Amino acid sequence: ELVARGWAHVRSGSFFEISDAVSAFQAATVIDPTFAAAYAGLAVAKVAQATNRNVLVEAFGEAKAAALRALALDNESPDAQAALGEVMLFAEWDWIAAERSFQRALAIDPNHAHAYLRYGDLMEALGDLKRGFHLKLQGLECDSTSVLAHLLIAVSCWNQRRYDDVIVWANKALDRDPQHPFAREMLGGACWMMGDLGRAGELLGV
After folding, report:
1. How far is Cα 184 from Cα 178, in angstroms, rounded to an integer?
2. What is the full per-residue pLDDT of the chain (206 aa) written as tens digits?
3. Among 117, 121, 125, 192, which lies 20 to 30 A Cα-Cα from 51?
4. pTM for the complete prediction?
5. Residue 71 per-residue DSSP state
6. Would you say 7 and 25 are in contact if contact means Cβ atoms under 8 Å apart?
7. One-character DSSP codes across 4-32
8. Are residues 88 and 94 in contact, defined by beta-carbon separation less than 8 angstroms?
């Protein structure tokens, strides 16, 4: 139950829910110190915490430790493999290791939405914007209710300067969470780039 709650917070795509995700996963590790999925979720939440705050070497270190702990407990856990891939991507910048982990996660579970989403991020970091976009669409197919998936697809459209599609995907995220701050920022930025300065100002508060 705690792990499911933690992933629900992660899937929200909201910085304001990440501390709740960390707390839920940490509580799960206390209840069962041998549960790999709890450590895997904790690793993902710690990466989100670090990247959203644009900080904290210690949070990345904690994420890596949790991912490695998850793998030590269950090397066949897709959550653990995806978590390690995310650490390799965002903390270590080790593209080869990140891809290996994402591919391993998807070999274990071909419907692992989070692995698809972060694999898409990796491909975009490597300059393959088209493949990154399609990987994220596959992630959305695996988890159609994920606000995070809709947001990351909006980011892909932004990277391709497809601002009309950014508006579409940001609005889909807002349909699921009408007050989502990042979705509003994405929508406002796209409106600005499309020349709708009034709407952009309303969304961005400028």
Report:
1. 9
2. 999 999 999 999 888 888 999 999 999 999 999 999 999 999 999 888 877 655 566 778 888 899 999 999 998 989 889 989 998 998 889 999 999 999 999 999 999 999 999 999 999 999 999 999 999 999 999 999 999 999 999 999 999 999 999 999 999 999 998 888 889 989 999 999 989 888 888 887 75
3. 192
4. 0.89
5. H
6. no
7. HHHHHHHHTT-GGGHHHHHHHHHHHHHH-
8. yes
